[in-house]
Amino acid sequence: MVRGEQSGIGFLTTDSLELPENSTWFVMTNLPGDIQKSVGNVYGLRTWIEYGLKQSKNELGWADYRLTDYSEIEKWWEIVYSAYLMVSLQSEVFRDADLEKTDSPSNLCLDKFQQHSWWDKAKGWKNVLNNLRLITQPLIFFCLITPWLKVFHIPSLKNGFLQLIDLMNEFNAYLPDG
């Protein structure tokens, strides 16, 4: 609490007469005004935020894992933050900065990528993630099929994958200059 300011003290509750233990919170804040209106309304959003995060975790398949070993948790968060960085670097802000360079080779490459039937031109993070998955798929699929190519020697299939991977490597992240 900041010195010299009046603090707001009160209860947030679903029943102001009975004050049920499982749905009543004692709150103290330095925010001015009626606590139930200023803090209660904002605090009520917490449930919806948690619900949204749970839905996101379920959608991404992150709710299926339960890690208890610290080193495994560390590895998990490294993957999560790396994926977040990868998607963030493709965000609209960086894309718009790069597209201003009209003769940029990445613009020509991007036009070609957008011809894929599954390419998503919308601007949300799920759309960006979808497009990044499309770009990384040739390498992932090649890694999965390589053991079979050692068993069944098909040079044209291997060469086709390598050509496709070379094309995918032309896709550049949108990094700001500076």
Task: Throw out a few tags for this protein.
single chain, 178 residues, mainly alpha, 2 domains, two-stranded antiparallel ribbon, elongated, disordered N terminus
Model description:
It is a single chain. The chain is mostly helical and 178 residues long. The chain has 2 domains: 8-64, no CATH class; 81-168, no CATH class. The protein has 6 helices and 2 strands. Helix 5 runs antiparallel to helix 6 (155-168).
Number of helices: 6
How would you describe the shape? elongated
What characterizes the major β-sheet?
2 strands, antiparallel
Mean pLDDT: 75
Structural class designation: mainly alpha
Helicity, in percent? 55-70%
Which residues form runs of ≥5 with pLDDT under 50? 1-6
Q: Which H/E pattern describes the elements?
A: EEHHHHHH
Approximately what portion of the residues adopt beta-strand conformation?
5-15%
- Secondary structure tally: strands: 2
| N- to C-terminal distance | 40 Å
User: Order of strands in the sheet with the most strands?
Assistant: 1-2
- Tell me the Rg in angstroms: 25 Å
The number of domains is 2
